[in-house]
Amino acid sequence: MPIATTNPATGQVLKTYDPMSDEQVDAAIERTDLAFRDLRRTSIAQRGRWMSAAADRLDAERDDTARLMTTEMGKTYAAAKAEVTKCAAACRFYAAHAERMLADEPADARAVKAVRAFVRYQPLGPVLAVMPWNFPLWQVIRFAAPALMAGNTGLLKHASNVPQTALYLEDLFRRAGFPEGAFTTLLVGSQAVDRILADPRVRAATLTGSEGAGRSIAASAGRNLKKTVLELGGSDPFVVMPSADLDRAAEVATTARCQNNGQSCIAAKRFIVHADVYDAFAERFVANMAALRVGDPMDADTDVGPLATERGRDEVDAQVRDAADKGASVLCGGELPAGDGWFYPPTVVADLRPGMRMWSEEVFGPVAGLFRVSSYDEAVEVANGSAYGLGSNAWTTDPAEQERFADDLDAGSVFVNGMTTSFPELPFGGVRNSGYGRELSALGMREFCNTKTVWVGEGAPSAGAGAHAE
Ligand code: NAP
């Protein structure tokens, strides 16, 4: 994939970049490694001042940054502005809470025959971040804010279609005051990742992206014994039970499916509806989806802009055609519009069956699959029938059922009567083919820390040290 800004609303290539050479990458890794030696010695309070300065710049530069994101990957300008604001809030959150999250944790010294014993969290070193284009600022900030606050440095390999956003991020942290090299953008294609991961100065990697990229990076990390966090795809279930508020459920279902032009890992993708309310929900949901306005993402009246890439749009179209050809019902949308840009209409497909691509694959566009089920158990079976396990949604006002869904849905999160989203206060991540490890909260910050056990004895011969060796 060329490293280039191409406007998805027009298909026009606006700017291209030559990939960095191996020598340039090596020099960048060297700078990042040197910066780590500085950064790890700075106080958390100092890092917090730099992180707060980054937040202030994000707020001040919101409109221009949002315009850049819309130009590079097609999300609506309104959504892009909200993304910048969310990033500033996450920077402030980690600036305010890192000290507490990284504080030494005392252990029961007597139980371990010590005078003093505690756990200390220390940074690992340069971390490679391989990131996707769909939330081009947020995906990076949710890694970078906790990682830099912990004293790690970052090497960003961003998606090839968002190079200007990638360069903006490097510039942002530099202007905020972080040491030169603390956060570096590498303009390279995906084939360069294996070599970077093999470099002994690079201590760990995080990927947000597809299952295929996850398998490849995990294999490379395995060969090189590097710690990884993988945030991969999802095909989140959205279960609607008879007690649900159907108007609200159908409204949130529409947003959950079509936010970010349908290109979110935690978008609800499979709508699993109890037979008692299936027709009533389907009628509302299809009406909402069909009413969304598709068009120029800079226009304030637009709900759904273009898909980010031509390849992505072709893939979505092929998945819907495959289902229709094999007997599924297309209740709205489903037709490629004429004209420039990679637009795809909000689409609802019912009567899906095993053997259709939409039954088992993630659909990365504004296309919903509708499933009819006749019981709680069948709802859970269909919901857990995907190989993914990122987020999940259940709509029910029955408290006992809410508890059961929280237990039974096999996913990294369960949102009851609401849409899956991410908060800096809560861990984020998946199970099964959606990856492993967590981002956000204290857990996310500690993924790239050395959780060090410190045991201090009396120093006298009778102390308990070495009671038994392992
Ligand atoms: P993608 O093709 O996997 O690309 C994501 C990043 O990985 C890009 O920087 C890409 O570089 C790189 N990459 C791709 N193949 C690679 C490989 N074999 N080795 C090393 N790096 C590789 O993903 P996408 O199609 O752009 O993004 C959509 C996917 O990301 C969906 O599956 C979505 O669900 C998932 N996603 C997950 C989360 C989450 O938090 N779990 C969030 C957002 C998106 P190039 O651009 O140079 O190819």
- Overall pLDDT level: 97
Q: What is the CATH class designation of the largest domain?
A: Alpha Beta
Name every ligand kind in the structure.
Answer: NADP nicotinamide-adenine-dinucleotide phosphate
Uncertain ranges: 463-470
Q: Provide the structure class.
A: alpha/beta
The CATH topology name of the largest domain reads Aldehyde Dehydrogenase, Chain A, domain 1
Overall description:
With 470 residues, the chain is α/β, with parallel strands linked by helices. Helix content is 41%, strand content 18%. The protein has two domains: 4-232 and 430-454, 3-Layer(aba) Sandwich (Aldehyde Dehydrogenase, Chain A, domain 1); 236-416, 3-Layer(aba) Sandwich (Aldehyde Dehydrogenase, Chain A, domain 2). Helix 12 links the parallel strand 13 and strand 14. The relative contact order is 0.14. Bound molecules: NADP nicotinamide-adenine-dinucleotide phosphate.
Which secondary structure elements does this structure contain, and how are they paired or packed?
Blueprint: E1 3-7, E2 12-17, H1 22-39, H2 44-60, H3 62-73, H4 77-101, E3 105-106, E4 116-123, E5 126-130, H5 138-149, E6 153-157, H6 163-176, E7 183-185, H7 193-198, E8 204-208, H8 211-224, E9 227-231, E10 236-240, H9 246-258, E11 268-274, H10 275-291, H11 310-325, E12 329-332, E13 347-350, H12 357-360, E14 367-373, H13 376-383, E15 393-395, H14 399-408, E16 415-416, E17 435-436, H15 441-446, E18 449-456
Parallel strand pairs: 5-6, 5-8, 6-7, 8-9, 10-11, 10-15, 11-14, 13-14, 15-16
Antiparallel strand pairs: 1-2, 3-4, 4-18, 9-17, 12-13
Helix pairs in contact: 2-4, 2-6, 3-4, 3-6, 4-5, 9-10
The structure holds NADP nicotinamide-adenine-dinucleotide phosphate.
